[in-house]
Structure formats: structure tokens, C-alpha cells
Amino acid sequence: MKYLASCALCALATTPAIAQEAFDLDTITVIANQTRTALERSGSTVEVLSDTEVRTAPTNRLGDRLAFEPGVSASATGPLGTASTVRIRGLGGSYVPVLIDGIDVTDPAGTGGGFDFGGMTNAGLGRIEVLKGSQSARFGQNAVGGVINIQSLRPTEDGVHGFAEAQAGSYDFRRGVLGLTARTDRTDLSFSVSRTETNGFSASAAGTEDDGFDATQASLYARHQVSDMVAVGLSGLYIDATLEFDEGAAAGDGPPPFNERTDRETAGLRAFAELETGAVSHDLAVSYFDTERQTSDNFGGRRFKGERRRVEYRGSYDPGGMWTLNFGGDYEEEEDITQTVDITGVQAELLFAPIDALDLAFSVRNDDHSEFASELSSRAALAWRMREDLILRASASDGFRAPALIELDPSFGDPAFEPETSTSYDLGLEKRLAGGGFLRGTLFYTEIDGQIFFDSNSTGCQSFADFGFPGCFETRDFEASGVELSAEVPINAYLTLNAAYTFTDADAGDTRASRVPRHDALIALATQITPDLDAQFTLQHVADSEPSEFAPAMNKVGDYTLFHVNATYAVTDSVDAFLRVENLFDEDYETAGGFNTAGRSAYAGLRASF
User: Which InterPro entries does the record match to this protein (predicted)?
Assistant: First the structure.
């Protein structure tokens, strides 16, 4: 809690830092509460990136773009395709579920069960929401840091439309994207497919060979309004990727082999039905997710396979007054090659608006895990519109994370591990400015009891007994607190200034949490140079990061400053040309000790709409 109480009165709420949908009363959040909520009425902190902002991102990797948002940071172990982690308020992939069109795409067979942003670009994607703070009362286990909700391509107008995009650039990067949409008064259809290839650069700072990446990604979304009461739909995702990486880059105990490779195949499918019966609405969905990785290196190969099957029901009773009752339940099975667990959850949520200026949300959820005792999670949030131009937000919540399957494996972990439990608070204020701008900020605090982590010196697991190699999962406590500030200021009709700053103090046990920057600042200028030419200039400064225990002594984890430029020129009404330069001043830095990052790199392309 440290300085939270003393600084509470100076809190300023937060939202996206780069050309966001600033305080638009029509902007809604689909994940803060169980039912769609106007952003101004959400007590939880949510960042919203429009489909346009995602498409025109000034960075190649999606995780790097998300790191522009206050409270969000990212680290990567090399070029596009290598492992990349997005952290929210100091908590990484194990604590941040990622949904794509309602499909949970976190890896059941991965270390900690998180999502790897390494090969994820903006190709074929639409709107993105980042929900911050513990959300177990909404999403169950693992949602301790927050939730990232990604939509694929969506139709925006009636009729049949599409686009084709071709892009090329540094490190022999080549990408093609095709998107098709169709909309009638009852049906929405969209499909996108992309192919990305790059020779990359050496992931290891000690290596010289290029580590390449190629991937094919496709997504499908369909929704049909069968009648005034019934709608049905389907969403799907498929990714086939091959990546090269350097596993031993940070070991510090001799040269790594420098020729590791992973073949990855991921598929997800979700079918849903919506039923409106007067004041009560019902949503039913079934989903399946499968991911398989085959790695190969000088020491042989390893196969990882994870599956997730899920059935969920959500209901909502809205009598049309000052309150709405949401409720539901779900059943989920997760498995890897050696283990299977199942989780049954039930939840309820009360949205209450006693006066027009005040919105309250109370959520509670119980999860019954096949390996552990049931866990109860709760959340309370408020949004108080103190004046027409001023909103106070506050939330308090608790949550839990069940051990990942690999953490229960006696080879590296302990079957006796218990779920981690957490508590989270935030408090913020939002001030509207003339012309549609804003000032926002949020104070936050999170603590976790019994956090499971990998200790490279531990000798308590079976792998040490069998092979004599140290390195096992152990437990400790975690605490993070900080402040997020952001602003958007329209200077005139052609210039908009955006700024963001995050201070994060994150401690893991007796040491600072690794790869979590203490200071993260960003300034961006969006400008309309001519009626056909617009540009964005982005300056990001990250400071005071701690390398992990695996980093070599000569690592470059620390302070760095990046400057990006991207511009779009309308060649015709239906054809745009774009140019993007990342790391213009060729900063030499690392976000994960011992692993290279991209130097100055340029990309150009064309996008044709039809």
C-alpha cells in the first residue's frame, strides 16, 4: 500500500495514450462488466484501441504497441517470432488471460500457462481492450493482472467489402494480408488471412546467425440474426508458424547451440447462441482450443501439446430500472501431454445506478478446481461522474491463480502447490478538456501470496534427484504499486498531442521483479500534414529495469529511448501507401538480458480497399 493512501487525493484516471477514442460517450467496453457498458460508467480501468489504431500501429509486434499504454510493458527474447511477454502492472502472461473473439488462447502446456505475443502482429485484427487489475470475479483463475480482449476483423458497413495489403522491409520482412467482410441487416461475416516471412536477426546477443520466422494466420467470424429473439454465430482462429530461437543465450555457462527451432500449430473454434426473452437475455457458447509445439535443438527435441474445452452460459436480467443482475456458469477442461484438470465456475454480478451520476458494480464468482479446494473471488467498482467533465473511478478485488500443469509436474514443480491468492486496488480521476481531450491517472496496488516462480538454484524437484541439474518451481510473495498518468490534448484541427507515464514498484520476494521497468514514459504527436498525408511521431523512454537471474553479466537491460515514425498517404480514394520507421536513432538495448532487439528498421507497403 506504501504511498497509496497519501497520494489518493491526487489520482488522475487513465486510458489509452495514443490517439484513443477519448471520452466518447458512445465508446463501450465489452469486458469490464458481463454486459456491455459505456466507458464512462465503468469503475474498472480499461484501455480501448480502435481497429484503426491497431491497423496503423507504429511497431511491427503487437506486444510492443500494447506497451505504449499506461501500466503495460513488454519484453522479448529476440526478433519477431521469439518469445515475448506483455505485462500489466508488473504481472506477466501467467496473470493476463488473452481472448481472441471469445477464445481463450493462453497455452495450457506453456510455463505458467500464458500467451506468447512473439509472433503476433496486427494483421487481420480489429478492436482491442486491455482491462487492468484483478478480474478473477469476472474471468476466474489467472486473471490477476488483467485481461486482454482482441477482436478479429469486423464488417463496418453494409455490403461486401475487403482489402489487400502488401508490406516489406528490414530483415527481409515480407507480409501479405487479405480481409473480406459482408454485412446485411441480419448477418455479419468476416474473414482474414495473412502470411508473414522474415529472416530476422540473431536472437542471442552472443550469436551471429539470423533467426527467422514465418507464419500463416487466418481468422473467421460469423453472426446471423435468425429472428428478433435468436442469433447464432461462429468464430475461428488458425496459426501455423515456424520460428528459430536461441535458447541458451542467457545461460552464462558456455556458448549456446544457436540453431533451435520451433514448429507451432494453433487452432481455436467457438460457437455461440444469443437469446432475448423480454427482460432476460441468454448467451451460450462452446469453444475448443488446441496448440502444439515441437522444438528441436542440439540436445534433441521436445513436444508440447495443450488443449482446452469450454462450455459457458451467461444470463442477464434487466428490468429497465436502476439495476441489472448478471449471472452465469462455465465448465472447462485443460490438458497437456501428462495431465488433465477441470474447473467449474459460477458467478453473479449486480450493476446498480442509484443516481444518474453513480454506477456501482459488485461481482462474485466461485471456482471449483479438480485439484484444489474451491476459490471465491469478488470485486467492487464504482464510477462517479462528479461533474460533467470529471469522473472518479475506484475498484477493489481479490483473485487467484491455480498452478499451471507444468508447475504441478514433480519433475520441475510440486503436486502439493496451492493456488496463489491476490488482492488488487485502484483509484483514479478523469478530467475532460475542451475539444475532446483528457487528463487521466490511476493509482494501483496488487499483492500475491504464494506466487509460484522458477528458481534456477532450487534442488527440491525430481529433475535434480534424477539428473543433478538445479532449477525447480518454488513460492514467494509479490507486491506491486504505482501510478499511471496519461493525457490527450488536441492542439488544433491538425495536431494532437498524447502523453503517458507509468511508475511501477514491483517486488518479488526479497528482490525487485525482473523485466519490469520502474519508469515508462511516452510522448506522441499525431499530425495531418496535408489532406492526403498524415503522420505519427512516437517517443518512448523506459528506465530502471532489472534483468532476470538468467541474464549474462554483460547484459544491456536498463534504460533506453526509442523513436518511431509512421506515415500514411492516400494515393487514391481506395489505395493507401504507408511507411514505418522503428527505432529511428538505432538504440542498442535489451528487454531480456542476453537477447538482441531490432535496430533501426524501415517498412513500406500498400493497402487497397474494395
Answer: Beta-barrel_TonB, Beta-barrel_TonB_sf, Plug_dom, Plug_dom_sf, TonB-dep_rcpt-like, TonB_rcpt_CS
Class of domain 4-609: mainly beta
By the 8 A CB rule, do 590 and 246 touch? no
Q: Which of 420, 427, 460 is nearest to 444 (CA)?
A: 427
Distances (CA, A) of 120 to 80, 192, 290: 8, 14, 17
The answer to whether the beta carbons of residues 583 and 562 sit under 8 Å apart is: yes
CA angle in degrees (0–180, nearest 5) for 548-463-109? 65
pLDDT tens digits along 519-531 = 999 999 999 999 9
Q: Which pLDDT band holds residue 6 (cuts at 50, 70, 90)?
A: very low
Report the amino acid identity of residue 456: S
Residues 6+ apart with CB under 8 A from 191: 153, 179, 180, 181, 218, 219, 220, 221
| DSSP secondary structure code for residue 122 in this structure | S
The pTM of this model reads 0.92
Q: How far apart are CA 29 and CA 138, in angstroms?
A: 14
Residue 229 Cα distances to 37, 181, 183, 276, 277, angstroms: 21, 24, 19, 5, 7
Q: Look at the block and give the residue holding cell 508458424.
A: 241
Rounded Cα distance between 523 and 518, Å, is 17
Q: Environment class of residue 457 by beta-carbon count within 10 Å: exposed (0-12), middle (13-18) or buried (19+)? A: exposed
> Poorest-confidence range of 164-173, 366-375, 534-543, 562-571?
366-375
